[in-house]
Amino acid sequence: MFSRGKGGLIPTAKAVDIHQNFSQVMKLVDDTFLCNSKKDEAFQITLLGSDIVESYYLSQLYNSDIFDRILINHFSVRNMSREHISELLFTAQGDLLISAEPLLESGIENQIIDSFKSFVCICSSKHMLSTLSQLSLHHFYSSRHALYQPGMGASVIYHDSELFKDDLYYTGRRIVGYRSDSLNGLMSMIERTSLIALMPLKLALFYKNHRKYDIKFIQPPPELALKSVQVYASWNKNSR
């Protein structure tokens, strides 16, 4: 996270990026609380979201002092309807939703807190394709894929119909060998099998460098058009 320079430790680009993303989230966290006259009473917040909130976002805060100041609870919204999630926010059973989609409901505020702009294909370091720098369409569609899907009714990062720049290219479907609502489970399956996965570069780097998964990165086929995916924080406007 830091490199040593003449003047001391210098934060890396990754550290700056994480700080910027989480400073936005933590500002929203701080704004959620009302002033409390009991100084010794711990602040609490309940974050709503999928596995990515706990496995990726919160895990990067474990070494910070925020857990000394705030009790953070994570509540999974797997397989919940958007109406139910809104109800949790309106009834103060949840304080903040982190999701890949804004919660478009009257009385709900939404703010972009992160963006996944670059994507890679990942596979086990022992995979027969691991020595390639870029996949062809044939490799992409003949391989079995692992898909991260936060819930049964939730969308995957990319549907097959959204992958192409135009209709000239083969509009096939990926062969799905594994689906999971757990990022850790998906990464373990990738590491141990011949599955591949299309994943945001940020997430892939986190699991390779921080979680030490033995995976390789391969560029997706150039024919694919991969649009950025936004991450939103949503909360009840009247909760402040």
Draw up the topology in text.
Elements lengths: L1 E4 L2 E4 L1 H20 L10 E7 L1 H7 L8 H4 E7 L5 H9 L5 E4 L8 E9 L2 E6 L12 H6 L1 E5 L26 E6 L2 H10 L4 E4 H10 L4 E4 L10 E8 L4
Parallel strand pairs: 3-4, 3-5, 8-9
Antiparallel strand pairs: 1-2, 5-12, 6-12, 7-10, 7-11
GO molecular function: DNA binding
InterPro entries: LysR-type_TF (IPR050389)
Keywords: DNA-binding, Transcription, Transcription regulation
Give your account of this protein's structure:
- Keywords: DNA-binding, Transcription, Transcription regulation.
- The protein is α/β, with parallel strands linked by helices.
- The protein folds into two domains: 2-114 and 230-239, Periplasmic binding protein-like II (D-Maltodextrin-Binding Protein, domain 2), CATH 3.40.190; 119-229, Periplasmic binding protein-like II (D-Maltodextrin-Binding Protein, domain 2, 3-Layer(aba) Sandwich).
- It has seven helices and twelve strands.
- The protein has helices spanning 13-32, 51-57, 66-69, 82-90, 137-142, 183-192, 201-210, and strands spanning 2-5, 8-11, 43-49, 70-76, 96-99, 108-116, 119-124, 144-148, 175-180, 197-200, 215-218, 229-236.
- Strand 1 (2-5) and strand 2 form a beta hairpin.
- It starts with a strand and ends with a strand.
- Mean pLDDT is 81; it is low at 33-41.
